[in-house]
Design a protein that fits this description.
The chain is 68% helix and 4% strand. The chain contains 17 helices and six strands. A hairpin with a 3-residue loop joins strand 5 (219-221) and strand 6 (225-228).
């Protein structure tokens, strides 16, 4: 079993069912008209399976490195899909991925100047011809058994996913110099981001460069430099400074790799010399130490060179940032100038403020006039308020007098109970006298309190209120009740 077929069996449930395998490997092109749903299901399954396998780098290819963005049709692919039980797939050419723009022939993808997202790609003459031939049965597709010519098809979905990963990484960079890469650095970046341990194929590299430049419009590139466009940058060109920056960054990466390698070599030679000394092999130990010294010397020079290059690169970064700052300040100045022109100068502002004050004064005048109109309907009768207050005060005094009378009656009932008690007459007389004195004192205090309150009330009233007839009978009545209650206590 080929590696491709094993991948399909492990990652696609359709290839683990004997019923589905029988249908997928049969000549299901005849089902196009009699069983459209079954035909569509088989076509979709093959398309998805091949796209997944290509993304894993398992499609057979003639290139030095596996391709994840394209697949090669022809004999090698059919042979990799062949099984002992079902043989080769007989209707693989029925796939309509090409006519649906899911796959595009590589040469056409690279040479055309029109974006794949342009409307003209939706209806292509060669796609219509292929579709018509398939419908009439005059074409057996790209993978027919009698066709061994290989054609490379770009898988659009895989290209879009790879492009998104690259753009997300680049747009996360802050400085302009981070968006300038050499072609070698761009290739290394793709390899790292996509996890390609065996490197990227030349066709995939060209495909990504074309896609990012033509279809996404985010890069410009030549044989040496790949430059990404900033989010707020409209025009994009490669200058001599970009070539210098790309070369400097490439050299720094190369020096870093050399330093790591030299350091590992020095460590290895030191360990070799130590082992030779332990084995009393003086000649081998001396040779190892001489090699170590040579490598240390080279290592020190590489480290010094890298430090100098990093200093130069930092200065370039600083200058590049200053250019961006000046550019932003210039744009901000233009914006402020345009806004001030729209304002019209200080004279126009003063005129507007004066007009605003006048209008606000008018608003206040109108509000005052409206309030004056509403005063007639909101006049409060002070006499009515005074009468209501007097009524509340009378009710309060009457409640206090009633409470005093209830207290006196309670004390009288207590005295009557004490007189009827069978006990010592002397003690009883003492109780009566004590209670009588307490009751008399309480009554006198209550009467005094009421008289004082009435006096204060009379002092606050006007002359007309003092001569008010209804008030005097109430006072006379209260005094009469008080004098009437007093003999009862003294009896």
């Amino acid at each position: 079993m080929s590696e491709l077929l094993g991948f399909l069996f492990n990652h696609d449930e359709h290839f683990r069912s004997r019923v589905r395998l029988a249908s997928l490997y049969s000549d299901f092109r005849t089902q196009r008209s009699i069983n459209p749903d079954g035909y569509t299901a088989n076509v979709t399954t093959w398309e998805n399976a091949l796209i997944k396998a290509a993304g894993a780098g398992l499609i057979p290819t003639s290139q030095a490195h596996p391709s994840i963005l394209s697949l090669d049709t022809g004999e090698d692919l059919l042979r990799a899909l062949e099984t002992n039980e079902w043989g080769r797939p007989l209707a693989l050419g029925a796939t309509e991925a090409v006519s649906k723009n899911h796959m595009i022939p590589l040469q056409q993808f690279l040479k055309t100047s029109t974006s794949i997202y342009h409307w003209s790609w939706a209806v292509r003459p060669w796609g219509l011809i292929t579709w018509a031939l398939n419908r009439t049965g005059l074409s057996e597709g790209l993978f027919a058994e009698d066709r061994t010519q290989t054609e490379r098809l770009v898988i659009v979905g895989n290209v879009e996913k790879a492009g998104s990963k690259i753009l997300n990484h680049i747009f996360a960079q802050r400085t302009p110099t981070d968006r300038v890469l050499s072609r070698w650095m761009f290739e290394k970046l793709i390899t790292d981001l996509l996890g390609l341990t065996n490197g990227i194929s030349s066709s995939d590299l060209d495909t990504l460069l074309t896609y990012l430049a033509r279809d996404k419009g985010v890069i410009v590139y030549d044989k040496e430099v790949v430059k990404f466009r900033a989010p707020d940058e409209h025009s994009l060109n490669i200058f001599r400074e970009d070539v210098t920056i790309a070369s400097l960054k490439t050299l720094m990466i190369s020096l870093n790799e050399q330093i790591v390698s030299l350091d590992a070599r020095v460590v290895g030679l030191t360990e070799r010399a130590r082992n030779a000394v332990a084995q009393n092999n003086r000649t081998f130990a001396l040779a190892s130490l001489r090699s170590k010294k040579l490598n240390e010397s080279v290592l020190n020079r590489r480290v010094e060179t890298l430090a100098q290059l990093e200093g130069v690169y930092r200065n370039i970064e600083q200058a590049s940032d200053q250019i961006e700052i000046v550019r932003v300040m210039e744009a901000s100045t233009k914006v402020l100038h345009r806004l001030h022109a729209e304002v019209g100068g200080i004279e126009r502002v003063e005129e507007i403020m004066q007009e605003l004050k006048d209008e606000m004064a008018k608003v206040n005048e109108i509000g005052s006039a409206v309030n004056e109109l509403g005063l007639g309907s909101e006049i409060i009768d002070d006499d009515a308020v005074d009468e209501e207050l007097e009524t509340l005060e009378k009710q309060n005094r009457q409640a206090e007098e009633d409470e005093a009378l209830r207290t006196m009656e309670k004390q009288l009932r207590s005295l009557d109970a004490a007189k009827s008690f069978n006990g010592d007459q002397k003690d009883l007389d003492n109780v009566v006298r004590t209670e009588s004195r307490a009751s008399k004192t309480s009554l006198e205090e209550t009467t005094t309190s009421l008289a004082d309150r009435e006096a204060r009330h009379l002092e606050q009233m006007t002359l007309d209120e003092q001569n008010d007839p209804p008030r005097r009978p109430d006072i006379a009545q209260r005094n009469t009740a008080t004098h009437t209650a007093t003999p009862v206590l003294n009896s």
